[in-house]
Design brief:
Length: 202
Amino acid sequence: MLTFNLPLARQYVIGPLVLLVVCVLLFLTEPTASHYLAYDRLQIEQFEWWRLFTGNLLHTNANHLGLNLAGVTLLWALHGQYFTARHYLFMLLILSLCTTLGIYFFAKTLQWYVGLSGLLHGVFLLGAYFDIKHGLKTGWLLMIGVIAKVAHEQYFGASQDVANLIAAKVAVDAHLYGTLAGLIIVVLLQLFSIKKASTLKK
């Protein structure tokens, strides 16, 4: 019989809950929120740099919002025990910035973007890494799976069904740069872990 131990302790719930609430509140203020907060290349070039962060919190329609909120909830259920509220929100901040900077510098044809899916790919990757660190072999499957998904999207494109559902083109480059950001953080964490272990042995 399968059992699920959800990370219901307050320290693990607050971060995802804050993210969910903010996304819902911003969605309720549309279209004003998108006008001032969406990732918009032209406006960013006019020094509206906050859009590099806030664009990730907006959504094109209720379906888009629902899919991403379901993603947040699923990732919390899978890996929430690894992130206190402070670490979770800091992780979101870094992944948001890295995802949109990747888009800004390397996906210049993408002029406008909203959605959590890019940074959620990074969150997924980090959760898989901590699974591996805790001796769970499924972490390798999850990590390989998300990398394979992104590679498939880059080569074949995203599902048209999903694009129709969210009434927008799926920003596969956001998925790519969110994943790459997660990979970079994983490498840095592993290097830090190796260095720390080496120091303790001396």
